[in-house]
Amino acid sequence: MISTDRDFPSFGILIKSFRTRRHLTQQQLAEAMGLHRHAVGRWEQGSFLPRSKETILELATVLHLDDQETRSLLEASLTALSPYWYVPLPRNPYFTGREEILEALHTQLGADQAAVLTQSSALHGLGGVGKTQIALEYAYRHALEYSAVFWIGAETKENIISSLLHIAETLQLPGRNDKDQQQVIAAVQRWLTTHGQWLLIWDNVEDLCLLDSFLPSARSGAILITTRCQALGTFARGVDLLPMKHEEGMLFLLRRAKLLAPEATDEQACQLAELMPSQCAAAADLVMALGGLPLALDQAGAYIEETGCSPMDYLRLYEHQQAQLLDRRGTPGRDHPRSVATTFRLALEQVEQKQSVATDLLRVCAFLHAESIPEELFTEGAAHLGPELALLATDLCQLDQAIAVLRNLSLVQRQAETRTLSMHRLVQAVLYEWMSEQERALWLRRLTTALNALFPEDTSDSSKWERCERLLAHVLTEAAAIPDHAGNQTLVQLLRKAADYLREHAQYKQAEQLYRRAVYVGEQQLGPEHPDLALALDGLAALSQEEGKHEQAVSLAQRALHLSERALGSDHLQVAFSLNTLARIYVEQGMYEQAEPLYQQALHIWEQRYGPDYPHVASCLNDLALLYWRQGRYELAEPLLQRAIHFWKQRGSESLQIASPLNNLALLYWKQGKYEQAEPLFLQALRIWEQEYGPEHPIRAYGLSGLAIVYSEQGKYEQAEPLFEQVLHIWEQTQGPEHHQVAIALFNLGEVAASRGKYEQAEALYKRALHIKKQVWGPEHPQVAYALNSLADLFMKQERYEQAEEWYQQVLSIWERGLGPDHPQVAYPLNGLANLASVWGKTEQAEALYKRALHLREQHLGQDHPETAETLHDLAIFRQKQGHLNEALSLAERTLKIRSQLLRDVHPKTIATQTLYDQLLQEEACTQREADSARYLEELPDSCREERHVEEASLTLHDRGDSSLCENDPLQEFLDAC
C-alpha cells in the first residue's frame, strides 16, 4: 500500500481545485498546456503524474498560482506513489538536471519493457557522483508506472537482508514476522517471481554476485543498480555516470545554497547572474574547482547556507583550506552522510587492502594531470617508480589487474583507444592529503625521474611530438607540485625539455617560465657553474631573441657557452649547441663577422664527432648558409643549402627539417631574381610547416612572407597582399602588436601599398613599422634602415626631396657602419641619392653614385639581377637627360631584357622600361632625321627657293613618315618658312 509520512492533499485534488477556481475545463487546461485532454483527466484521477518539475511549473503559470500554491503542488507531486512502495529516502527537492540519463533509464526500464522480461540497468561511477540521487528521482518520477517500487541498500549482505525484510512488511506477506530470515526472503522472492511490472533498485552494490544470491532466477520486472564497479558483465546495461555539466552544476549549487528557490529555472538563474554577477562568477569557478561532483557541490551549498557566507567567500576559503572543506559534511545528509573526503578515503583503504600495486599506481596519479594519463608511464617508465610498479614493465597483466581493482571502485577510467587513464581531481586531492609528507616527496622524486626518462631530448624532431604532447600536461602538473628547494638535476632537465617543446610550438610565455625556473632551481641546487644550466640558458637566450630582448639574449647565450666550455671542454657536443645558439643570435642582430667563426667551430665539432652525415651538421649548414645570404655571399650559400636539402631528402622528402633549407634556398633564388625557381620551394616549405605546426604557428608566417614577396616582385599584388595580411595576423596574435616581426609584416604591406600608388596608406604602414623597429633594435640598427629607405623612396615619388635626402643619408650611414661599405644592401640608398642628384642637376655627383651602386649590385648579385636592372633603368634615364642617347638606349635595352625574362610583361617595372626604350628609339630616330635634313639643306644654294625644291623637300619629309614626333626637324622648318 502507499507508505508516506506526510498528509498533504493529493496532486489530483489540488489540480482540480486550482482548475475550477480559474473556471477552466479539462479541455481548456490541456489546450493551454499543449496536451491531450486525457492527460489532465489522468492527473486528476491520480493515475498519472507530470513527468518533470518543469511541467508542474508550467501548470502553475497557466493556473496563475502564487509561490505558496506552487510549492504545495510540487510537494503533492512528491507524495503520489506506487501501490506498493518501499523507498526509505525522501525525494530531493534540489535535484537538478540529468534529464538525458533519466530519459535513457526510462527507455530501458519502462513498465512496458519490464512486462516482457527483466530489464537491468546500472548507474556506475565515482562515489559522490550522484548515482543514488538519480535512482531516487527516477523512482519518484515514474512511481505510478510500476505495480511496486522497492529500494534495497546493497552495500553489504546485512543491508540487503534488512531491506528485504522491510519489503516483506510493505507487501504484508504471510510469515513476514518469521524469525527465520531466509523464509521471509524466500517469500519476497516468490512474490517477485509471481508478479510483474515492478521496479527493484539496488543501491551501492559492492559485489554483483550478491544480487544473484537474493534474486529469483525467474522474474518479470525492472532492476536498477547503482555501483562504483564499471565491469558489469552480462548482468546489466551500464550507464557511465559523469560529473555534472557546468550549467547543471551551477543551477544545483545555487539552489542548494538557497540563493535560488528549489524550483528555480535556468532563466531565473540568468536573472540572478545579472543582479549578482561577481557571486555567480564565483559559483561558476567553484563548480569548475569541484569538478562538477554533486556531493562536493552539495557540501559547498550546505556550508554557504549554514554559515551565510557567499560563493566568493567559500571559493577563497577553498583555495587555502581545500582538505578541511572536503572533509566537512555539514548537516548530516540522510541519503549520503559521508563527506567527499571520507567517501574517497574509504575507497582508498579498500584498494590498499586488495592490491599494493594498484595503491602505488594511484599515488603516482595523484601528482599528474587528471585527464589522459598515458599508460606508458607505468610500462616504459615503470623501472623508475619503485619496486612494486617496476614489475609492470615486464608483466602487462599486472597492470590490467591493478586497473581492474581501481575501476571496480570507479577511481579511474580507462580509455583503451588512447591508452590513457583519467580520474577526478577531488580523488587526487584526497589522495594527496592521504599521503604523508615523506611519501609525497618520495613519489615526486620517482615520478620526476620517470617523466624525464620518457620525455624526448630533441623536441625539434616532429616524430617525437606525439610523445611530448602526451606527457606535457603531466610534466607541468607534477613540476608545479615540487617546491624549488626540493628540486634536483632531473627536475632541471625535465623543465628544460618541456620548455624546448613549448618554444618549438610558439608557447613562448609558458616556455619562458619553465626556462627561468630550470635556471633558478639549477643555480640553487646544483650551483651557478653546473653545465646542466647551459642548455636551459641556451633555450632562454633563443626565446629572448625571438621576443626582441637582444642584449639579454646575447648575455644568456654567452654565459651558456662559458659554462659548457669551462665544464666540458671546447670540443664537447654541448659546446657546439651553445656556439650555434650564440651564432644565430648574432646573425639576427646583424653581427655577421662574430657569427661566422662560431658556426664554423660548431660545424667542426659535429663533423669530427659524427662525420658529415649527421642531423646537426645539416642544421648548421643551413644556418651558415643563411648568414652568407644575409651578407650577400650567395655563391657560398647555395651549395650549403643544397647539401642540407640532400641530407634531409635521404631521410624523407617531406620531413619537417627539410622545410627550413628549402625556404632559405627559395629566399636565395628570390634575391637572385629567379622567381620561377623560388615559388615552388616556398610552397613546399609552407605545406610542410602547415602540416606539422598548424595554420597559426609563427613559422608558417616565414613561408607566407617569402611567397608573398615573390608575388609582389612580379607585380602580383592581389595575391601578395592577403598573404602579408595573414602574416601580420599571425605575428600579432602570437607575439603581440609591438614585436619586431610585426614591423616586418607592416613594412611588406607598405611596399605593396606604395607599388599600387596608395602613398598615404604606405606612409602610415612604414612609420608604424619604423616605430616598432626603433623600439626593438634601437635607432642605429641595420634593421631600422629598411623602413627608413622605403620611406625615402616614398618621399621621392611624392617630390618631397629634402626629406628623401635626409633619410637616404641616414640609411647609408647605418648600413655602411653595420654591414660595411661593400655590402649589396648599401646600393639601395646610393641609388636613391643618385636619383635625387639627377633631379637637382648635380650631374657629377649623380654619375658617381650610380656607378658605385651598379658596381655593388653587379659584383654581388650578378649582371642579370632585378636590383641590377633597377640601377640600369635609372642610369638610362640619367644618360637620356644628358643627351647620351646611344648609351641610354643600350642601358634601357639591357634593363628590358632582364625584366622581360624575370618579370611578366604586364609588370609595372617591365612596362616602364619598355616605355623608356620606345622613347629612346624615337629620340634616336628623330636625331637621325635632323641630321639627314641638315645635310639635304646644306646641298641647296643659299638663295634657292624654287618651287621644285619645295616640292622635293615635301616628298622627302613625307617619305620619312610621321614627323610630328620630331619637333626640330630642319626640313620641316624650311618648308614652314617657304
Report what the structure shows:
Helix content is 67%, strand content 5%. It has 47 helices and nine strands. Strand 4, helix 11 and strand 5 form a beta-alpha-beta unit. Helix 19 crosses helix 21 and helix 43 packs antiparallel against helix 44. The protein is elongated. It starts with 10 loop residues before the first helix and ends with a helix. The N terminus is likely disordered.
- Give me the count of strands: 9
Structural class: mainly alpha
CATH architecture of the domain at 11-240: 3-Layer(aba) Sandwich
Largest sheet data: 6 strands, parallel
Number of helices: 47
Per-chain topology:
Blueprint (H helix, E strand, L loop, with lengths): L10 H11 L4 H8 L3 H9 L7 H10 L4 H11 L6 E3 L12 H11 L1 H6 L2 E6 L6 H11 L6 E6 L3 H15 L9 H14 L1 E10 L3 H6 L5 E8 L9 E4 L5 H11 L9 H10 L1 H13 L4 H14 L3 H10 L1 H5 L13 H15 L1 H10 L7 E2 L12 H4 L5 H13 L4 E3 L4 E3 L2 H10 L2 H18 L10 H16 L8 H16 L3 H18 L6 H15 L3 H19 L4 H16 L3 H19 L4 H17 L2 H18 L4 H16 L3 H19 L4 H16 L3 H19 L4 H16 L3 H19 L4 H16 L3 H19 L7 H13 L3 H18 L5 H17 L2 H18 L5 H31 L8 H13 L10 H8 L1
Parallel strand pairs: 1-3, 2-5, 2-6, 3-4, 4-5
Antiparallel strand pairs: 7-9, 8-9
